Amino acid sequence: MAEGPEEREAALVERIARGEVIERAEDMTEGYRTNLIHLMTMQADSELAGAFGYVPWIMKAPNTSEMLAVAQITKDEVRHARVMYTLLRELGVDVEARVQAFDFAHRVEEEDLGTRRAGDDARVNIFYYPIRSWADFILFNVLMDRGAGFQLQDVEFSSYGPWRRAMQGIMKEETMHIAHGDAWLKRWGQDEAHHDEVQEALDRWYPRVMNIFGRPNSPRNAVYRRYGLKRRDNDEVRRAFAAEVAEVCRAAGLVPPPWQPDWERVPDDAWIAG
Ligand SMILES: [Fe+2]
Ligand SMILES: [Fe+2]
Q1: CA of 138 to the centre of ligand 1 (A)
Q2: Helices 5-17 & 30-54 angle (0-180, nearest 10)
Q3: What's the 12 CA to ligand 1 centre distance in angstroms?
Q4: Which of 107, 249, 103, 229 is nearest to 161 (CA)?
Q5: Centroid of ligand 2 to alpha carbon of 80 (angstroms)
Q6: Rounded Cα gap, residues 74 and 64, in angstroms
Q7: Please, which residues have CB less than 5 A from ligand 1, an ion?
Q8: What sign does the CA torsion over 132, 134, 139, 142 have?
Q9: Phi, psi of 160 (to 5 degrees)
Q10: What is the pLDDT along the chain (274 residues), one digit of tens a residue?
Q11: Closest ligand by atom to 81 CA
Q12: 150-164 core/surface letters (b: 16 or more CB in 10 A; e: else)
């Protein structure tokens, strides 16, 4: 007798629990495929929206060396998007139609979106906020590249082989974006002329980034963990991130604002990005 969907599902979960890596679409169940595509689409759309948010700063960077640095970071993000869309295409997603369908340059004027998305693409909602100043650009590198990096650490051990291998290259570049932000944070944090501006940007971006990690004990996170697509609870990732940010800020003479979790305002699902 042929294996039914429940047996197939149980067999897949068991293979994953043993540490086996899934390489081919034929080996996936519908549940696995749907969740994998969901996570990878959020990453792909965030990478592209992130790149487009950086584009104006190639022109507005404070000097030619920084123009080159921003151009390089922008190119990295477009590359990450391209890598992720290629993986999605291999799973049957019509990625060119998707990219044409949405305005990845769209940004909002609102100060606080809460858990809302401001469009129908799947980007993490922090990518709907505009980068309005060089201090914002710095904080984006320090907080968002770092936050994405913390979330994506799990992907380097994920059960889907192609994604896992793609992440190794992406993470190397994200590490450079974070280092770029940290160097500027230190420079401006310790400079009287810029200290208050960079503290103000930190106060604004910090609560937004803390919301991207999702709620503790989320049912979706349990599904991702069962499929080997994540390894840690959302809140565990958030706490590790917050501890590192506190350290980086202290070294720059800055203080992250107090953050009280209001779980109603945090999406259930951890939002992944780069
Ligand atoms: Fe990045
Ligand atoms: Fe990225």
Answers
A1: 12
A2: 60
A3: 33
A4: 229
A5: 5
A6: 15
A7: 145, 174, 177
A8: positive
A9: -100, 110
A10: 567 889 999 999 999 999 999 999 999 999 999 999 999 999 999 999 999 999 999 999 999 999 999 999 999 999 999 999 999 999 999 999 999 999 999 998 887 887 778 888 888 888 999 999 999 999 999 999 999 999 999 999 999 999 999 999 999 999 999 999 999 999 999 999 999 999 999 999 999 999 888 888 888 899 999 999 999 999 999 999 999 999 999 999 999 999 988 776 666 665 543 3
A11: 2
A12: bbbbbbeebbbebbb
Annotation: CATH topology of 24-265: Ferritin (1.20.1260)
pLDDT in tens, 62-91: 999 999 999 999 999 999 999 999 999 999
pLDDT value of residue 69? 98
How many Å apart are CA 29 and CA 12, to the nearest integer? Answer: 7
Domain range list for the chain:
24-265
Centroid of ligand 1 to alpha carbon of 13 (angstroms)? 32
pTM to 2 decimal places: 0.93
Ligand 1 centre and the CA of 96: distance in Å? 22
Distance 104 CA to ligand 1 centre (A): 16
Alpha carbon of 23 to ligand 2 centroid (Å): 23
Residue 274: the pLDDT is 30
Residue 148 alpha carbon to ligand 2 centre in Å: 8
Ligand at shortest distance from the CA of 176: 1
